[in-house]
Amino acid sequence: MAEIPYKIYLSENEIPSAWYNVRADMKNKPAPLLNPGTGEVLKASDLYPIFCEELSNQEVDNDTKWFDVPGEILDFYKMYRPAPLVRAYCLEKALGTPAHIYYKFEGNNTSGSHKLNSAIAQAYYAKKQGLKGVTTETGAGQWGTALSMATAYFGLDCQVYMVKVSYEQKPFRREVMRTYGASVTPSPSMSTNVGRKINEEFPGTNGSLGCAISEAVEAATSQEGYRYVLGSVLNQVLLHQSVIGLETKAALDKYGIKADMIIGCAGGGSNLGGLISPFAGEMLRGEASYDIVAVEPASCPSLTRGSYVYDFADTGKVCPLAKMYTLGSSFMPAPNHAGGLRYHGMSPVVSQLYDDGIIRAVSVKQTEVFEAATKFARVEGILPAPESSHAIKVAIDEALRCKETGEAKNIVFGLTGTGYFDLVAYQKFNDGVMEDYIPTDEEIAKSLASCPKV
Length: 454
Ligand SMILES: *Cc1c(COP(=O)(O)O)cnc(C)c1O
Prior knowledge:
The chain has helices at residues 44-47, 53-60, 71-80, 89-95, 116-128, 142-154, 164-169, 171-179, 193-201, 209-221, 235-254, 270-284, 302-305, 348-355, 366-380, 386-405, 423-430, 441-448, and strands at residues 7-8, 18-20, 66-68, 85-87, 100-105, 133-138, 157-163, 183-187, 226-228, 261-265, 291-297, 307-312, 321-326, 360-364, 410-415. By secondary structure, it is of the alpha/beta class. The protein folds into 2 domains: 7-14 and 81-112 and 241-448, Rossmann fold (3-Layer(aba) Sandwich); 21-68 and 115-228, 3-Layer(aba) Sandwich (Rossmann fold), CATH 3.40.50.1100. The strands form 4 sheets. A 7-stranded mixed sheet has the order 1-4-5-15-10-11-14, with helices on both faces. A hairpin with an 8-residue loop joins strand 12 (307-312) and strand 13. Helix 9 packs antiparallel against helix 10 (209-221). It is globular, with a radius of gyration of 20 Å. 58% of the residues are buried. The model has no long low-confidence stretch (mean pLDDT 95). Bound molecules: pyridoxal-5'-phosphate (PLP).
């Protein structure tokens, strides 16, 4: 076998031409979405008022294994894909580990993260349906940025509700979105019913993804020709993100590398779900086994400390109910800089795979995440996003463990994005004033009590 290059590139025509739907291989399917008012199972057509029709169909389809990637989306993918799978030779050397470390780098586009993979798909289906525009929420700003790039490409209007704390801390992300033509409103705002209500209930709130989702849904359903789009959690988003895992697998196969451990950070579960899909599929079909690890922040630990129950997807309780590992929709994460990992719940697909023992989960503290990020940046060159650095932390720990045992394990992790817009967080870390916030059992129990009884 040829020596493994620093970067394993695929060619343009090796970009996957179909997305893989891991649900088709799951014996225990993720639980269906429910109507928040009646508790009834939602069919695709019930979702049409909120989501585009094709996306609604993808959302409820647990059987179709492969979905063709439309040519227009493939053309867009070609502008920034295939993404390289990088052998972290310098990190291995710095750690003195016999382990082989690989990372799939998704930060190679202007929005700086994997979110563009689904944003372009969602914008395409909105355009195809003849819509005027889309509404959405954004936490740290990566999703809004990705979506604004995608809507600009297809000539759609884009209205973004941005979690207030990020709107204030990340003015540069806001300006990128506006440059791509999106309008950006801090959430909770006073321009929607639900925003006014949340502002009344929690005066001075920093906002949360759950609030911003409620506002964006209200904005979509109250304007003609608009639908709501979401950057994570949903089955359709994991489907689009399977492009990450399919490329990773193709690159590994090219050099005959068998991954032992696959690590992804988990906020809503989309990059993790996409990265692991083809590997989890092999496990579900009994063809291979992998140690798959979801890494979440100790400040927002839905898998490791939440409950697997039906919950509201948003604070305003307007969205369908989803069965997921959750901390309760009223959970208000501390102002944590892992902005993209602040959601109270976890993708239903990832939740089910976790419940079935196909994947495991760990939580890590913010300061140790930034230590890992700094170590990585200094040897591998890339300034990682704080979210991605959760995966780096666990990869480094495992590589150091291999140093003790002498195992030449193949460790693969998802490097979901770059951290150029997260320099306020890096500044706090460099100044030694970053804190580790960990919610108490009482806080979690209190917010879990707000879950609906179904
Ligand atoms: C949004 C984001 C995440 C977390 O979202 P998932 O849906 O869990 O993937 C991770 N990394 C980066 C860089 C992000 O922007």
